[in-house]
């Protein structure tokens, strides 16, 4: 991961501004609520992320410049917030740059990593794996 990446540093600053981990969870939930909704046809098996306890859908594409674009949704508030966080981390980047980002390291830096349940950590790993795998295919 690039040191001094402006998107990552912005996320770290936003979460550093918050007090304890409960405030960080609330902020994460608010991030999820702000996501643009997916259409009903996008809540498909093709877009569903396997390996998540909650239902998670990720729609991956590339823009005209070849940068990764990601949209997503979940049926669980905190997981939807994690989807929003991953969208901020990965979307808008060239696929090779996105592949170099370590989401767990970013979560640790913002103080959420140690507060995720094992199920959410596994789901996060599945989402990241899906993003990385799809980055080369879209």
Automatic annotation (TrEMBL):
SUPFAM superfamilies: SufE/NifU. InterPro entries: Fe-S_metab-assoc_dom. Residues 13-133 form the Fe-S metabolism associated domain. It holds the Pfam family SufE. Belongs to the SufE family. This is SufE family protein. It comes from Glycocaulis abyssi. The lineage of its organism: Bacteria, Pseudomonadati, Pseudomonadota, Alphaproteobacteria, Maricaulales.
């Amino acid at each position: 991961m690039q040191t001094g990446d402006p998107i990552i540093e912005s996320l770290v600053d936003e979460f550093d501004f918050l007090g304890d981990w409960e405030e960080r969870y609330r902020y994460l939930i608010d991030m999820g609520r702000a996501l643009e909704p997916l259409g009903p046809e996008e809540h498909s098996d093709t877009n569903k992320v396997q390996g998540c306890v909650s239902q998670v859908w990720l729609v991956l594409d590339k823009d005209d410049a070849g940068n990764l674009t990601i949209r997503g949704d979940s049926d669980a508030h905190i997981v939807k917030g994690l989807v929003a966080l991953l969208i901020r981390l990965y979307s808008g980047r060239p696929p090779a740059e996105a592949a170099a980002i370590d989401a767990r390291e970013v979560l640790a830096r913002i103080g959420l990593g140690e507060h995720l349940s094992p199920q959410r950590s596994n789901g996060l790993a599945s989402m990241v794996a899906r993003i990385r795998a799809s980055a080369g295919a879209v």
